[in-house]
Amino acid sequence: MASMAFIDEHNEIAMLQKPKQAEGFHQIFDFLRTSHIAHALTVSPTIFIEHQRQFWANATIVTENGVQMIKTRVCEKPLTVTEEVLRICLRLDDAAGITSIPNEELFSTLSKMGYEGQMGIFKFFKA
User: Fold this and answer.
1) How many C-beta neighbours within 10 Å does residue 124 have?
2) Judgement on whether residues 18 and 40 belong to the same structural domain of the protein
3) Which helix (H) or strand (E) holds 88?
4) pLDDT tens figures, 66-75
5) Do 88 and 103 reside in the same domain of the chain?
6) In terms of domains, do 55 and 68 share one?
């Protein structure tokens, strides 16, 4: 089983404003702002660091009835987190949506957006 731990990056949010120094990437900001993941990326609820530490310190991955979940305790209260719970809380509303994009389709789309270079190594350069 993979060990789980709290790290500071667990509580970061994205700022989807278009900085002038990132002019070539404004399409990406527009896409993210209108996508179904915008809420999950930008909303910053009050989450206490100690609660996060407790969550990850006690977390175990369990499969029940074919459903994978995280079981943990925070402030002595048992919590169960499933994919469905995350979709509801993060307002993803995309259970029937795309779960993966084939590399060929991804690279083709990035090329159309003006990215150059070896696409297979995931280092992209905007033209």
Assistant:
1) 15
2) yes
3) helix 83-89
4) 999 999 999 9
5) no
6) yes
Residue range(s) defining the domain that contains residue 40: 14-44
Same domain, 104 and 84: no
Task: Give CA torsion, residues 117, 102, 16, 51, to 10 deg.
Answer: -120
* Claim to verify: residue 86 and residue 122 sit in the same structural domain: no
Place of tokens 């719970």: 85
Tell me the pTM. 0.47
d(CA 25, CA 3): 35
* pLDDT tens digits for range 94-114: 666 666 777 788 778 777 877
Dihedral (Cα; 26, 12, 41, 63), 10-degree rounding: 140
Give me the number of domains the chain comprises. 3
Among 70, 64, 67, which residue's Cα sits nearest to residue 4?
A: 70
Which H, E and C letters describe 20-40, residue by residue?
A: HHHHHHHHHHHHHHHCCCHHH
Chain segment 45-79, per-residue pLDDT in tens: 677 788 888 998 989 999 999 999 999 999 999 99
